[in-house]
Amino acid sequence: MNQPSGGKFPVNMQGIKTGILTVMVMALMAAAQAQPTPAINRIEYYVDADPGYGNATSLSFTGTTDANGTIQLDLSPLGQGVHVIGIRSRDVNGAWSLDNKWIFLKPYSGAGAAPVPNINRVEYYIDNDPGYGNAAPLSIPAGNDLSGLAISIDLAALGQGVHVVGIRSRDANGAWSLDNKWIFLKPYNNTGIIPVPNINRVEYFIDNDPGYGNATPLSIPAGNDLAGLAISIDVAALGQGVHVVGVRSRDANGAWSIDNKWIFLKPYSNGAVPVPNINRVEYFIDNDPGYGNATPLSFTPGTDLSNLLINIDVAALGQGVHIAGIRSRDVNGAWSLDNKWIFLKPYSNGALPVPRIVRMEYFIDSDPGYGNATPVTITAATDISSLVFEADISVVPNGSHKLGIRSLDENGAWSLDNEVAFTGGTLVSNVYQWTGNASTSWTNPANWSTGIVPAAANDVLIPAGRPFYPVIASGVQANCRSIKVDPTATVTVATGGSLKVNQ
Predict the structure, then answer these.
(1) Residue 9: its pLDDT value, please?
(2) Is the dihedral angle over the CA atoms 213, 219, 222, 223 positive or is it negative?
(3) Torsional class of 450: left (φ above 0), alpha (ψ -120 to 50), beta (otherwise)
(4) pLDDT at res. 99
(5) Run of H or E including 192
(6) DSSP symbols for 262-321
(7) Entry pTM
(8) CA-to-CA distance for 408 and 415, rounded, in angstroms?
(9) Among 50-64, 242-256, 417-431, which is the least confidently predicted range?
(10) Distance between CA atoms of 246 and 203, rounded to whole angstroms?
(11) 255 CB-contact burial (10 Å; exposed 0-12 / middle 13-18 / buried 19+)
């Protein structure tokens, strides 16, 4: 049973004796580092149904942060069978632990085994399930084991072919079993062979399928086996090149076969596949404006463009690295893949310029992410190695810490983090100090140095120079033992909110 403060609440179930369930309860509240452990002011338990926090049966206990108690639970009002006991605790700050739950059995009055109810109905159905209680009933003997029950089913009304029989039972408690199902065959009247319907249509299509029954019909003989059927297709109207022919059949029951498809080639008149001419070549620098929108190149259609020379004016380009992309389009409207090359427009002095550093920031212990750490005031420059700055440790507890420092240049590139270990801090460990790192909300734990919202027993400090200052919103009742507010800091209590100082 884990409390928000980090405590533990293990429970030891000792057993069941003469109708009394004895439970040893020991709550161990481990002290969290750098903050006091709140005392436990209530332990309660419930059986089966949880009445809600504060409404369960209260348990007497000894101790404060280490609590011990014993539950003497009278089992006589409980029904025989399985039950659940739940136990939890609450500290002086009003925080509840998680529930610890255990399953236990109140034995049945017999030999210790749960009684098995008799079966009072067995029913079956063929093919279609009419629903529980609506299938055909079977005559059964009284008992709870019908594993040898024989079923006699009249098949006279069933059609020839495959069927499914489903069987299930219901016990005296109204619980239904799972359905048992079997597939069986009512034989056909002839030799037992399932009749195969005749095929009454065969059709084919070229390239585009017009839909079942709309393709070109073929003349076929009556029968159910057309494996040797020859198809004569006139390809005179087809264009030269690759095509697809699809063939399918339909039987007398209206069932269509799967399409059989083949790829074939109508030869080109000269025996070779013609290569379409290229009618456009274009290029772009760095940013692709889209097919057909890049800068066109002049060339002679029908020529080999493998050695085409491109004259690109780089006068308007900035010094540094660029990308040139080139592609072509043929008379069929098909575009080639882009060919891309990286090139450098040399810098005027022959050396790459060093970008200036435009931001420095630091963090202590926890990294809030690039751009979110505490900024350092700097003058933009390429070398700030001798910079001295003051890091704010007003919300840092005394002890060992890590200082992380990094910089951002004008190209948007971050440096690696430089990390320095140090020992120090000014924060008193038992004072809840406002950091204001997240928002103005008094009730947000991320705004407090302890990561916990202060309660009636805690001292509070509101220092100056915070990103946000606390606001106690309407409907919020804030508590503390004492509060100190620096001269330039503020605490705002909104209408409908309150701050209670318990000193």
Answers:
(1) 30
(2) negative
(3) alpha
(4) 92
(5) none
(6) EEEEE--TTSSPPPPPEEEEEEEESS---TT-SEE----TTS--TT-------TTSPSEE
(7) 0.27
(8) 6
(9) 417-431
(10) 8
(11) exposed
